[in-house]
Amino acid sequence: MLELLLCSLITILPDYLFRRYRQGKRFGKEITFYSVWYELRWGITGCLMLTVALITMIFYFHPTTDSATLYYRTVPILPEGSGRVDQVKVSFSQAVKKGDVLFTLDSSRQQAAFETAKRKVAEVDATMIAAQSDVVKAEAQIQEARANYQQAKDELDVKSELQTRNPGIVPQRDIDKLKVLVDQRQAGIDAASAVKETASLQVSALLPAQKASAQAALDQAQVDLDKTTIRAGVDGRVEQFFLRPGDLVAQIMRPAGILIPDGAGKTALQAGFGQIEAGVLKEGMIAEATCISKPWVIIPMVITSVQDYIAAGQFQGGQQLIEAQNGPKPGTILAFLEPLYKGGLEGVTPGSSCIVNAYTSNHDVIADPKTGALRGFALHVVDATGLVHALLLRIQALLLPVKTLVLSGH
Fold first, then answer.
1. What is residue 64's predicted lDDT score, i.e. its pLDDT?
2. Helix %, strand %, coil % for the chain, to 5?
3. Dihedrals φ, ψ of 352, to 5°?
4. DSSP string covering 229-282
5. How many other CB atoms are there within 10 angstroms of residue 320's CB atom?
6. What is the pLDDT of residue 1?
7. Rounded Cα distance, 190 and 185, in Å
8. How far apart are CA 110 and CA 226, in angstroms?
9. What is the pLDDT of residue 402?
10. What predicted TM-score, i.e. pTM, was given to this entire model?
């Protein structure tokens, strides 16, 4: 309507002034309700054509959309395993900090496994103490075997010396028995040394390895036990937390609830523009938004990025060929917008629906000396028509509460 009024000022109004003051035709006389369509045909036709052209230019170079929302990411509250809820530590709606306990699962099985692993570590420690005692005992046995060996060796040396000085004084059989006894005592030393080495290996290698395995099992049991206590992963707020003791939760298909991180939906606005505006939307374009949750307020924004892909064209490999005729409705160009000034989105509820206008600026092209006068004038016209769209956005912001509360039929 506003475009029609503007176009009528340079089409219908001059045509009427020509009919009135040049041809002398007046309303109610020569120009009536039935003849006005003939008398002002040039002005009306030109007004309609100019209005269509103006609207097309405005909506193309200064795109608008009402498909804009403050999307925000939620974090599902899921245990790493499954089980029945034992205790719930938070209420239906509550702010939480990272690390706060949300709820606990029944941990009887994990507690039993933890105690078993703990006992195993204690058992290995006791075995290690016993093995150290075995090492001490083996050292004593070695000393005893060496003493017995030395005694037998000394007796053999004495009798061998006597036999050498006075042959026949010592029976050869006694000397042979002493030699066998010496060998026996040497074997005792070797056996005691082997026992000590075995005990030392247990203390230095086998038992530490067993203790490390037992400690790893204890750590794993502690991890499994800790998994029964579900904590908040980020600072945020739990909403609609209906979980109660006795409920069954699992990592797949049975989440416990959702956690909304702090600051979610308060930094950027996502807007979907028509595909025809893909060549106009650029990073760095100035935009304006008005949201239902914060009426009568225009928020200056800037486009920070434009998604290079349209979601409607994605597909996953399957067992059937794609039939384009049965495809989804045409998608939109997704643009991400951030407030031009700090705190611009304060007071806007995350998830709120918004109306967004983006404005094309050709200032750099116009200021370029290489730009011709005709092109510069056309670009001036394009930039100037953004004022009309800005005015339309403000009218929409003004009428938004009326449209929502009165005309929506609720």
1. 92
2. 50, 20, 30
3. -70, 145
4. EEE-SSSEEEES----TT-EEETTTB--EEEEETTTTSS-EEEEE-GGGTTT--
5. 5
6. 67
7. 9
8. 9
9. 85
10. 0.70
> What would the pLDDT profile of 63-98 be if each residue is shown by its tens digit?
999 999 999 888 888 888 788 888 998 988 889 999
141 class by beta-carbon count within 10 Å (0-12 exposed, 13-18 middle, 19+ buried): middle
- The CA distances from residue 269 to 190, 294, 335, 344, in Å, are 84, 14, 8, 11
Give the N- to C-terminal CA distance of the chain in Å, as an integer. 27
Q: What is the pLDDT of residues 209-235, one digit of tens each?
A: 888 888 898 899 888 888 888 888 889
Answer for the pair 149, 184: CB distance below 8 angstroms, yes or no. Answer: no
The 10 Å CB-count burial string (b at 16+, else e) for 178-187 is beebbeebbe
Q: Chain-centre distance of CA 8, in angstroms?
A: 54
CA–centroid distance for 206 within its chain: 45
* Element holding 165 (H helix, E strand): helix 108-165
**What strand order describes the sheet that includes 75-77?**
75-77, 257-261, 236-239, 94-96
For the chain, list residues with pLDDT below 50: none
Q: What are the tokens at 250?
A: 């699992």
pLDDT at 83: 84
Element (DSSP H or E) covering residue 96:
strand 94-96
CA–CA separation, 214 and 164 (whole Å)? 64
Question: Rounded distance, CA 153 to CA 174, Å?
Answer: 13
d(CA 378, CA 369): 15
Give per-residue burial for 53-75: e unless 16+ CB within 10 Å, then b: ebbebbbebbbbbeebbbeeeeb
The Cα 61–Cα 31 span in angstroms is 39
Could you give the residue ranges of the DSSP H alpha helices within 166-201?
172-201
β-bridge partners, 334 = 272
* Per-position b or e across 255-264, b if 16+ CB within 10 A of its CB: ebbbbbbeeb
Do 298 and 394 touch, CB atoms closer than 8 A? Answer: yes
The first and second tokens of residue 22, run together, are 């040049």
The predicted-structure confidence for 109-162, as pLDDT tens digits, reads as follows 888 988 998 898 888 888 888 878 877 777 887 787 777 777 777 776 766 776
Give a three-class secondary structure readout of 34-56.
Answer: CCHHHHCHHHHHHHHHHHHHHHH
